[in-house]
Amino acid sequence: MNTPPVFGDAFREELATLMAWRRDVRRFRSEPVPPALLDELLGLMALSPSVGHAQPWRVSRIDEAERRAAVQASFARCNAAALAEYEGERAALYARLKLEGLREAPVQLAVFCDEGTARGHGLGRRTMPETLAYSVVAAITQFWLAARAHGVGVGWVSILEPEEIARIAGAPPDWRLIAYLCVGYPQEASAVPELVREGWEGG
Amino acid sequence: MNTPPVFGDAFREELATLMAWRRDVRRFRSEPVPPALLDELLGLMALSPSVGHAQPWRVSRIDEAERRAAVQASFARCNAAALAEYEGERAALYARLKLEGLREAPVQLAVFCDEGTARGHGLGRRTMPETLAYSVVAAITQFWLAARAHGVGVGWVSILEPEEIARIAGAPPDWRLIAYLCVGYPQEASAVPELVREGWEGG
């Protein structure tokens, strides 16, 4: 029997600081992330809550130059379509930074939801089946926070064709793409924390 | 200009402990959560990443006995249908514990995604529009971790009719239910941490 931990003010303050300084990183240094650290971060990801304990997260590492080029090509197609809809420098800047991440990030992870998993027996997801995918998002959030605590940056790229990324990753038919993550040490630490924003509609 | 924080080993270890001991809480004590603490937790939730900085999370507090009874009635309808599909004590126990949470939790939050938000200008969610909802899940994950750090338990109930919960909450048509959260001090601290589980499919 373990004794449940009690957390103190110092830890709570540092946790709040972590949440304020977790950022979407787009520019990475080329140095590798130590494999043991990546394993540790993926282990923390797997401690995440999941509906009916289904644990549906599946992670594929995209390493080969050829596969990375195919991901960038998917991004380029989506982005051309997106830029045709949005005007102005903001959208162009957003896209350019994301593409730099895809070119530079030493670790790239395609994160899937295994919609065919029998684990969890479907408990808790009959009326809201999307909670299976949400379990994967919770896991990604834990990975992101843990990575930042270790000085490792994460950028979430969503301007992609999900089916094409699944094909590039060689994913089984039941795996649905949730996120494509660029991971590595940031080129520069962000000098700006998140602002406190809208979160409460009261009532 | 701020100096970005660097986190040390002690914090990292405590963060891993937090992730291991964050649990889905089902049994709550009746004592209230101090309003200032709830505001603090919702503030941390709002520091979450969101696609194109859309910040689509909307939180409605369900307080009145009549509205809580309507939520429990929705749960009872879903649960009867679910139990007809699953056999055995596991599903029944799962449902009974969740219902206790709905009866006892002093704070209950319906968390929505505002699919009509203009904020973010649609950036980054053209090919994967579901990332807007995922942003809300990330925020809920941060809320959950922050709550646990303060000794406050969270239980996520998904055995509900999303449209009915939106109606009970008086949500605008564009708000889509992501989660119904039971929040309060746990009756007993969980004596079992999460086990390290599957998170890595290699490759």
CATH architecture of chain A: 3-Layer(aba) Sandwich
Largest interface by Cβ-Cβ < 8 Å: A-B, 95 and 95 residues
Q: Provide the residue-averaged pLDDT of chain A.
A: 88
Helix-strand makeup class of chain A: alpha+beta
By CATH's scheme, which homologous superfamily of chain A applies? NADH Oxidase
* Tally of alpha and pi helices of chain A: 6
Distance between the termini of chain A: 41 Å
Quaternary status: homodimer
Label the overall shape of chain A.
Answer: globular
Low-confidence stretches of chain A: 196-203
The number of distinct β-strands of chain A equals 4
Overall number of domains of chain A: 1
Largest sheet, spatial ordering of strands of chain A = 1-2-4-3
Rg of chain A, Å, rounded: 18 Å
The CATH class of chain A: Alpha Beta
Helix content of chain A: 40-55%
Sheet with the most strands, sense and barrel status of chain A: 4 strands, antiparallel
Question: Gist?
Answer:
Chain A has 203 residues and is of the alpha+beta class. Chain A has 6 helices and 4 strands; from the N terminus they run ααβααβαβαβ.
SSE arrangement:
Two copies of one chain form a homodimer.
Chain A: H1 9-21, H2 35-45, E1 57-61, H3 65-85, H4 89-104, E2 107-114, H5 131-149, E3 153-157, H6 162-169, E4 175-184
Antiparallel strand pairs in A: 1-2, 2-4, 3-4
Helix pairs in contact in A: 2-5, 3-4, 3-6
